[in-house]
Amino acid sequence: MNDPSRLAPETRRFTLPVDPVAARRFAYAADDENPLYFDDEAARLAGYERAIAPPMFVCSMFDHAAGPPERDLRPDGVAPGVFPSVVRPDAALLGGGQEVEFLAPVHLGDTLEVTRSLVDHYRRPSRQFGQLEFVVMESRAVNQDGTPVVRIVDTLVVRQ
Amino acid sequence: MTGDVRLTKVPTTVALFRMSAVMWNAHRVHYDEAYATAVEGHGGLLVPANLLSSYACEAAMAWGGPASRIVRMTFRTRAPVLAGSVLTVRAREVSVTSPDGHRVAELDLGIDDAAGGTPVTGTAWVRLPTAPDGP
């Protein structure tokens, strides 16, 4: 299954500001009006310093960049730099799953440094779609105090 | 504890647009129905995995209450979910253990569709508050 010889040492690093507006937009988009995301006092009563980001907010941000311009997007609209080079430009992509360890709270206004690496790439047959490829990436996020806050392993299902 | 949690969620096209917008995600399967169906052969617009995992996360947090902490979650998408689907999001206690002095509940998570399928499954581990007035 796993063929490490195919793995390139592909690692990206980016800074992710936990912008309160973006995090709350995420909460509304997810139909989740938990006061922990909107109300500092409610968050303090629950043991946090202040309002927190929805846990899946950080786990959803695979990049934080202004670009690319539309002409540089893949035909399916995906920004090419977000995924490792093993993913061909015309491959169909589906989110396959995620494993997340929440190590410390992420408060609104924090600034995270995220390191994202390709960790596995394998093929497996599917009854519905024929041969599928699985691309596994790991993200580690550290806050402005150097505290690791989240570790994410996510699997992308690729129809090449 | 609070017993099983069941939430009803309908990922609308507006929700898909807003989620894609906040993530600056231009993947056309989430908002361009002609592309999603004619080019990629899906039955409609695809709900992004992170919206589904957010629903599951909300259920786990609702189960544990505000003073609990999710320490670990896993999700697996077993089948595509289309925009407009009526979903039931479930969180159910499997066990409570105290591996390091903290009580940690293991929850079984699932998202069911109206046709009886379970396109998303998962597990959450939730650390429970120690205070006597906790949930």
Could you write a compact summary of the structure shown?
With 160 residues, chain A is mainly beta. Helices cover 14% and strands 37% of the residues of chain A.
Secondary structure elements and their pairing?
The complex is a heterodimer of chains A (160) and B (135).
Chain A: E1 11-17, H1 20-29, H2 40-45, H3 55-60, E2 92-102, E3 111-126, E4 130-142, E5 148-159
Antiparallel strand pairs in A: 1-3, 2-5, 3-4, 4-5
Chain B: E1 5-9, H1 13-23, H2 33-39, H3 49-64, E2 69-77, E3 87-97, E4 104-112, E5 120-127
Antiparallel strand pairs in B: 1-3, 2-5, 3-4, 4-5
Q: How would you portray this structure in words?
A:
The complex is a heterodimer of chains A (160) and B (135). With 160 residues, chain A is mainly β. Chain A has one domain (10-159): Hotdog Thioesterase (Thiol Ester Dehydrase, Chain A, Roll). Chain A is 14% helix and 37% strand. In chain A, strands 1-3-4-5-2 form a 5-stranded antiparallel beta sheet. Chain B has 135 residues and is an alpha+beta fold. Chain B has a domain at 5-12 and 47-127: Thiol Ester Dehydrase, Chain A. Helices cover 25% and strands 31% of the residues of chain B. Chain B is built from 3 helices and 5 strands. The longest helix of chain B has 16 residues, at 49-64. The chains are: A mainly beta (160), B alpha+beta (135). Chain A binds chain B through residues 22, 25-26, 28-32, 34-36, 42, 45-47, 54-56, 59-61, 63, 65, 70, 73, 76-79, 92-102, 105, 157, and chain B through 9, 15, 18-19, 21-29, 32, 35, 39-40, 46, 48-51, 53-55, 57-58, 61, 66-67, 69-77, 80, 129. Strand 2 (92-102) of chain A pairs antiparallel with strand 2 of chain B.
